[in-house]
Amino acid sequence: MTLKDKTAVVTGSTSGIGLAIARGFAAEGANIVINGFGKPEDIERERAAIESEFGVKAVHSPADMSKGAEIGGMIELAEKTFGSVDVLVNNAGIQFVSPIEEFPPEKWEQIIAINLSSAFYAMHHAIPLMKARKWGRIINTASAHSLVASPFKSAYVSAKHGIAGLTKTAALEVATFGVTVNCISPGYVWTPLVENQIPDTMKARGLTKEQVINDVLLHAQPTKQFVTVDQVAALAVFLCSDAASQITGTNISMDGGWTAQ
Ligand code: NAD
After folding, report:
1. What pLDDT sits at residue 17?
2. Alpha-carbon gap, residue 43 to 46, rounded angstroms
3. How high is the pLDDT of residue 207?
């Protein structure tokens, strides 16, 4: 198993892509810190399932990724509970869809904080632990929107382009310490994040739900299929393997050909 006795912190892992990545790492033997919001009973069910299905330990950090101090607390929880942070996945993210002139400034600030600044804070606290052990894997969930834009997603596109730059910078800083830093850039993955933005896109563009799915979302994806959360998780697991030790500073697309256009 690739990650036996290692510790993985996955932000935004109570749902969607993050949950699939956390489960993928647990299947490889890692102890897990899950993070994110949700109903306590749902979070506890997912946490307990990780332990029982994969025979590892899992704890939940309720840290709010818009608050730097709480992010430090999450890394501290991982270190105190499991003794290290070997793998960090900066995955928490939210979306808001609106023309720039109507975009609420507080939504801009929130998206930049959760989708970009949180990765800085988590790395700020985790990199010293990884450098000390001369091994680490940092994976940032970026997006096809780290490479190309779509209208009405100004904050999201800005944050995702930012995380691609942060990834390259961090990779260069830790390259000689056995620590790799990469981003995964999915196209549209069928998760609550995508489902929840459909009503706003319907409103912003005056379209029906079916039109948003086929003409807006899958319009961009030449394969005309959504990426699955398990496909993203499998790539994250690969990036933690020895075979991937020379892959660093990259932005790996998994977008059904979207950004090839
Ligand atoms: P999701 O809504 O299913 O999950 C988001 C997770 O982030 C949840 O666990 C939620 O509780 C958590 N979260 C939100 N705000 C938080 C905060 N302030 N503090 C801590 N946790 C918080 O979304 P998803 O689709 O799985 O998205 C995960 C990541 O993948 C995001 O960064 C998103 O931008 C990126 N992404 C998604 C898609 C897609 O099509 N779904 C495509 C490309 C990139």
Report:
1. 97
2. 5
3. 94
Q: Return the residue matching tokens 């739900």.
A: 209
Q: Report the number of secondary-structure helices (H) and strands (E) in the chain.
A: 9, 7
Is 35 a pocket residue for ligand 1 (Cβ < 6 Å)?
yes
Q: Note the Cα 56 to chain centre separation in Å.
A: 21
Domain segments of the chain: what residues? 7-189+227-260
Helix (H) or strand (E) holding 150: none
Q: Average of pLDDT values for 156-175?
A: 98
pLDDT in tens, 198-239: 998 899 899 999 999 988 889 889 999 999 999 999 999 999
Ligand 1 atom nearest the C-alpha of 38 is 11
Cβ–ligand 1 contact at 182 (below 6 Å)? no
Task: Check if the beta carbon of residue 81 is closer than 8 Å to that of residue 56.
Answer: no
For ligand 1, the distance from its centroid to the CA atom of residue 93, given in whole angstroms, is 4
What amino acid occupies position 148?
Answer: V
- Determine the Cα–Cα distance for residues 33 and 64; give it in Å rounded to an integer: 14
Spatial CA neighbour of 163 closest among 108, 89, 83: 89
CA of 176 to the centre of ligand 1 (A): 31
Predicted confidence (pLDDT) per residue in 57-110, tens digit: 999 999 999 999 999 999 999 999 999 999 999 999 999 999 999 999 999 999
Q: Which fold has domain 7-189+227-260?
A: Rossmann fold (3.40.50)
Token pair belonging to 230: 């398990």
Q: Between the CA of residue 206 and those of 194, 197, 218, what are the distances in Å?
A: 17, 14, 17
